[in-house]
Amino acid sequence: MRVLIIGATGFIGRALVARLRRDGHTIVASVRSESRARSMLGGDVELLAAARGADALVAALATSDAVVNLAGEAIVGKRWTPSRRRVLEESRVGVTRELVRAIAAATPRPRVLASGSAVGWYGDRADERLTEASSPGDDFLARLCRDWEAAATAAEQSAVRVVLLRTSIVLGRNGGALAQMMPPFRLGLGGPIGNGRQYFPWIHLHDHVAAVATMIADERYHGPVNLVAPHETSSRMFAAALGRALHRPAVLPTPAFALRVIFGEASTTLLASQRAVPAVLNAHGFTFAFTDLDAALADIVR
C-alpha cells in the first residue's frame, strides 16, 4: 500500500514509518521541515512539505491507499491556559478537519483513515472497566478527544473507513512518556503518582505500531480501538516495575497536590484513572508481543 502519514517525525510516527517500510509499504510523510524529516526518516520516504498547501495534500491523498493521522501537540508538560487549549485543539481537531476536507476533495480517495485519539476520551473513571462501547468523560481532555474523533469520523461521508486510535501511554526507547520518567527513576527518586491506586493503561511501542499496521489493512476494524496492553496496571504497580527494570528503589510518591499546583487542570492526565481494555483488538485476534509490564520494560531499558 501507499500510506500517507501526518505526524511521521514524532515518537510513534518514526516507529510506524519503520514498521510499514519493513512490511513493504510505500510511505509519504507530511512534514513541516523537509531537512529535519529527511535526517530522521531516511532517503526512502517521500516527503510532502505542509507549506505546499491544500492542493498538494489533495494530490497526495489521491495517490494514497491509506492515511494515518498522528498530529497533535504534547498534552503533558504545560498548564492548560486558554491559549494552550487553543493550540491543543487546533493541532488535533483543526488539523483533522483540514485533512478530512482534503480527503473529500481527492479523486480517487484513500480507502482508510486511521486517526489519533486517546483513552483520555473516557475521563477519570476510577475502577470502571472501559471498553470501546463505554460512554465518554466530560473533562477538557475527554471533550477534546470527542471533538477530535468527530472530526475524523466525518470522513465516513466520503466512503472512507475510519479507525479511531484511542492510545494509552506508549512505552518505548528514545522518547514518549519514559523519556521523562527515567531520569528520576535512575537516581532512585521515582515512585507512584498521587495515591498510586489509579489505573495506568499502557502499550509497548512495538505493539502500537503493529496494531496500526494491522488495522489499515484489515477491513474488520472501524470506529474506536483501545490501544492498550491486556495487563491491567496501577500507578503503584508501574512504578515498582520500572524500579525493578532499573534496579532502583521506586517508593517516593509524587503528591497529587504538588502536580495540581504545577500543572493545574493538566495534572488530570497524570492523576486520572482509566481501566481501559483492548476489547476490539482481542475480539479480532490481535496478538500482543508484550502483555506483561515487566517484560515490556525489560525490553526497553536493557
Give the secondary structure arrangement, pairings included.
Layout: E1 2-6, H1 11-22, E2 26-31, H2 34-41, E3 46-49, H3 54-62, E4 66-69, H4 82-105, E5 112-118, E6 129-130, H5 140-153, E7 161-167, E8 169-171, H6 176-186, E9 202-204, H7 205-217, E10 223-227, H8 235-246, H9 256-263, H10 268-271, E11 275-276, H11 279-283, H12 293-301
Parallel strand pairs: 1-2, 1-4, 2-3, 4-5, 5-7, 6-11, 7-10, 8-9
What does this structure look like?
With 302 residues, this protein is an alpha/beta fold. It has a domain at 2-172 and 203-228: NAD(P)-binding Rossmann-like Domain (Rossmann fold, 3-Layer(aba) Sandwich). It is 43% helix and 16% strand. It is built from 12 helices and 11 strands. The protein has helices at 11-22, 34-41, 54-62, 82-105, 140-153, 176-186, 205-217, 235-246, 256-263, 268-271, 279-283, 293-301, and strands at 2-6, 26-31, 46-49, 66-69, 112-118, 129-130, 161-167, 169-171, 202-204, 223-227, 275-276. Helix 1 links the parallel strand 1 (2-6) and strand 2 (26-31). The longest helix is centred in the N-terminal third of the chain and has 24 residues, at 82-105. The model has no long low-confidence stretch (mean pLDDT 94).
